[in-house]
Design brief:
Elements lengths: L7 H34 L5 H29 L1 H20 L4 H29 L5 H30 L3 H4 L1 H15 L16 H17 L1 H4 L4 H23 L13 H21 L2 H7 L5 H8 L1 H20 L1 H22 L6 H28 L7 H27 L5 H29 L11
Amino acid sequence: MADSSISSLAWRTLAVTSVVGFMVSLEITVISLALPDIRAAFPEASESTLSWIITAYNIGVASLLLVAGWAADRFGRKRIFLAGLAVFAFGSLASGLAPNAESLIVARVVQSLGGAFQFPSGLALLLPAFPFERRQMAIGTWGAMGGLAAALGPPLGGFLVGAFGWPSVFLVNVPVALITLVLSLLWLEESRSDDIPSRVDLISIPAASIGVGAIILAIVQSEAWGWLGIETLATVVVGMVLIGLFVVRSRSHPAPLFDLSLFAIRSYWLGLVGTVGFVVGFFAFFVPFPSFLQQTWEWSTIRTGLAIVPGPALAAVISPVVGRLADRIGNGPILAVGGLSGMTAMVLHLLLTDLEPSLFLGVILPGLFLGFAAGCSFAMSVGAVMRDVPARRFGMGGAGRTTLFQLGVALAIALAVALVGDPVDGAAHLSGLRNTWFLCLGAFAIQAVVFGLLFPRGNPAAQAE
């Protein structure tokens, strides 16, 4: 039965933003399964060129989020959301029709523009549509779609690539995006911030975008360049100088791109710290593990995907449930439990996962604990960070959160790749993975401590709107 305290507009907004969240999350999941076929389709492309098919998207999204958050608050969240959907659909179409690797990389950059403009605007549309006392439920339902996409991604990606070829993992987005675009035009209600100046600090825009992009580039290229290589260090220095310029300008400019006063909100900055802990723990595990199952255990892509499904499926089931619970007790306790569950998953992997294949003990059992951690953490970390952000800063606050999220993902993947290395046999592969599991254990411990001991208690009944 529908909650009578929630308007039909709120439910429609939740439906649209959830479908878009599902689409974007599915895109992230299925692309890795298409890489072998893309490599075969473009044999003339080098490995470094092919790696940019993923890297270009990640850098594009992360570097434009702050601009997208400001634009959503300034020009209208619905307008920016629609623009992002249209660009994402065009980028997906161009990716699926790309005749060579270089064209595919350019199309992925276009796709990243649409993705960047969807994230903060979608969240900024969702939050004010619901009364404050029901927002955590809405965030939980929205987050469940990401978990469902993660669950469906591996088997669906394997099916699409096997039945229709690698372009299908991009082209499948096009009809979904177009249908959602039409529904968004009909269903969504425009909102914006009334106190965002009409002008913006034009120096901060390139400084923030290029600075964040440089840091992401240094992280993702660290394996090829070396962690202490000249290229890595130089790129980090450039990124830090530009981010420093962005901070200085944001402190003094009358129309900053990002309002640094958000960091005076205790739940905001602590939520960001805890979120990075979760992101590193989750993605440093999730990215390299399927390769171990395929290369060392010699499982097929489909079997690997199906074996991993139970964890993300559990996350999708429990995310709306913990969202309703968070409306009563707050995000902190739930996220602390999520951190403890993630730690349990890593301990189980360290104790039970070995060279001899074991579906239940080596994959499913620890995977269920990791899925429980994800269900308690993905959407709830958004709710924790945004808990006390005033409505007029929803776009800006969400953009800051997602930027840190993307930086955390890039760092997690780079660290995992460095720890696993290029193993010569199964024993070396398992040894490298165990190093990543210790890293993940520490990262989940940070999440548990931040949200269990330091994060503000309770769930405020009112908020400065």
